[in-house]
Structure to design on (105 residues):
């Protein structure tokens, strides 16, 4: 196996992980937005213009707020993992051209 084949298989292995993580980030973040909109509809007594989101926990739908925060955190976690796993080969061509000053010492 030559070097190019090894690099391509490595990129394929990473993309098998990154693509589901990206979809998880999109779906979980979308779910968080839907849950937040549902909280607004189900608990109209809390005005979003001057109340914090966490005050929905005082109402009857605290479980929905917990689901919203859980999906928001899951989406953020998936997005960070997607970014970290993608590596420099996915970030753009110009990114690798920047010298690393820490290595010059």
């Amino acid at each position: 196996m030559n070097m190019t084949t090894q690099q391509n298989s490595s990129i394929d292995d990473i993309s098998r992980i990154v693509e589901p993580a990206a979809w998880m980030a999109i779906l979980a973040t979308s779910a968080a937005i839907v849950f937040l909109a549902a909280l607004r509809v189900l608990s109209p007594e809390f005005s979003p213009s001057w109340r914090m989101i966490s005050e929905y926990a005082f109402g009857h739908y605290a479980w929905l707020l917990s689901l919203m925060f859980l999906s928001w955190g899951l989406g953020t976690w998936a997005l960070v993992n997607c970014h970290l796993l993608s590596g420099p080969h996915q970030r753009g061509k110009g990114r690798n051209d920047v010298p690393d000053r820490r290595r010059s010492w």
Summary: The mean pLDDT is 79. The longest helix spans residues 3-42.
